[in-house]
């Protein structure tokens, strides 16, 4: 029988299961369906379910009302203590996937009205209907052990509570064979890192870094961390330059994510030790930094470097749009 599981709408009850339907005894409530929508399947019983934010190998506690910040490496763990706060799950079908499905459906409408209508209805069901979830097995001992950071080709997640979609084309993961978290010495302890390939940007550069900030970067508040990253990134640029780069004063504003601070600044440098760039360049940085109440420090960083005296690269707007879209997902 084909798998009919589908992603939940945001703020929906638990939705992440690898199996078919709820096990016997699981409380399932079905609201009367609207005339043009299927009835959503709601699992109301508290328990451990596969993490709705996509954290691989982790289970998140559903308390019967909301997803909590409790994580476990086993669905057989016993009930945890009271959660510090709730977690808003990300749809399992991200914006890129939904856009692709919508485009496909639109094309099919042109092929045939009936086929197009049926396909579009299917798309609406995918968006609106949560899947059945696996009921937890017999409770065992709590094991709150989940990966600190996970990275794949589409997203990065820290503790399953924070993350972002990585910038889309034309960017590629720094390590194209393994997109897992890597370190940027002295700046990021573990992060998703990507850049533009040389054939896409032969005489300019654009990069992103998303993840856990290195302990060497100063900052115990979000604003201090943003300024600490500016200082650290400026020092990294100096290592590639003939002289210390000229840094502008950062413009600080609230970040996309509540509690974060966004710092935007420029740097002018004369490169002489960069891998493939040489001469005068202007770099534009965007740094969104956040220090969590428990001391965890995360950041989203982008940098674009273009020749100081050259024309604007043709693909620069596309790169800027991909970076902006990624930053917008850090909520």
Quick overview:
The protein is 19% helix and 29% strand.
Can you tag this structure with a few keywords?
18 strands, 9-stranded antiparallel β-sheet, 4-stranded antiparallel β-sheet, single chain, 331 residues, disordered N terminus, elongated, alpha+beta
Secondary structure blueprint with pairings:
Layout: E1 28-30, E2 41-43, E3 47-50, E4 59-62, E5 67-72, E6 86-87, H1 95-111, H2 113-128, E7 149-151, E8 155-158, E9 162-165, E10 172-173, E11 182-184, E12 188-195, E13 205-213, H3 222-238, E14 246-247, E15 251-254, E16 261-271, E17 279-291, E18 297-307, H4 316-328
Antiparallel strand pairs: 1-2, 3-4, 4-5, 5-6, 7-8, 8-9, 10-12, 11-12, 12-13, 13-18, 14-16, 15-16, 16-17, 17-18
- List low-pLDDT spans: 1-35, 37-41, 83-101, 111-144
- Total number of strands: 18
Computed over alpha carbons, the radius of gyration is 23 Å
Classify the secondary structure makeup into a structural class: alpha+beta
Number of helices: 4
Distance N to C terminus: 37 Å
- Mean pLDDT rating: 74
- String of helices and strands: EEEEEEHHEEEEEEEHEEEEEH
**Mass-distribution shape:** elongated
Main sheet makeup: 9 strands, antiparallel
Strand content: 25-35%
Helix content: 10-25%
Explain what the structure shows:
With 331 residues, the chain is of the alpha+beta class. The protein has four helices and 18 strands. Strands 10, 11, 12, 13, 14, 15, 16, 17 and 18 form a nine-stranded antiparallel β-sheet that branches. Helix 1 packs antiparallel against helix 2 (113-128). It is 19% helix and 29% strand. It has helices at residues 95-111, 113-128, 222-238, 316-328, and strands at residues 28-30, 41-43, 47-50, 59-62, 67-72, 86-87, 149-151, 155-158, 162-165, 172-173, 182-184, 188-195, 205-213, 246-247, 251-254, 261-271, 279-291, 297-307. The chain starts with 27 loop residues before the first strand and ends with a helix.
């Amino acid at each position: 029988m084909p798998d009919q599981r589908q992603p939940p709408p945001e703020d929906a009850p638990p939705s992440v299961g690898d199996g078919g339907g709820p096990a016997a005894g699981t409380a399932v409530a079905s609201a009367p369906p609207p005339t043009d929508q299927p009835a959503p399947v709601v699992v109301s019983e508290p328990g451990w379910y596969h993490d709705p934010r996509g954290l691989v190998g982790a289970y998140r506690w559903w308390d019967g009302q909301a997803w909590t910040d409790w994580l476990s490496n086993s669905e057989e763990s016993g009930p945890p203590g009271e959660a510090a706060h709730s977690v808003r799950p990300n749809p399992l079908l991200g914006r890129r996937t939904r856009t692709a499905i919508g485009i496909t459906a639109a094309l099919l409408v042109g092929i045939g009205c009936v086929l197009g209508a049926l396909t579009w209805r299917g798309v609406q069901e995918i968006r609106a209907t949560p899947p059945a979830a696996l009921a937890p097995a017999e409770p065992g001992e709590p094991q709150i052990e989940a990966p600190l950071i996970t990275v794949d080709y589409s997203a990065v997640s820290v503790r399953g509570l924070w993350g972002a979609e990585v910038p889309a084309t034309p960017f590629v993961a720094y390590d194209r064979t393994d997109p897992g978290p890597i370190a940027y010495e002295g700046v990021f302890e573990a992060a998703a890192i990507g850049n533009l390939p040389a054939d896409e940007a032969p005489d300019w550069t654009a990069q992103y870094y998303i993840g856990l900030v290195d302990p060497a970067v100063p900052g115990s508040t979000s604003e201090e961390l943003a300024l600490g990253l500016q200082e650290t990134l400026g020092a990294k640029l100096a290592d590639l330059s003939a002289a210390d780069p000229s840094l502008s004063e950062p413009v600080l504003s609230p970040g996309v994510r509540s509690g974060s601070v966004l710092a935007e600044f420029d740097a002018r440098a004369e490169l002489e030790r960069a891998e493939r760039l040489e001469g005068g360049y202007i770099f534009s940085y965007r740094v969104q930094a956040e220090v969590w109440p428990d001391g965890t420090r995360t950041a989203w960083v982008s940098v674009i470097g273009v020749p100081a005296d050259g024309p604007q690269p043709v693909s620069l707007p596309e790169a800027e749009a991909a970076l902006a879209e990624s930053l917008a997902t850090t909520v």
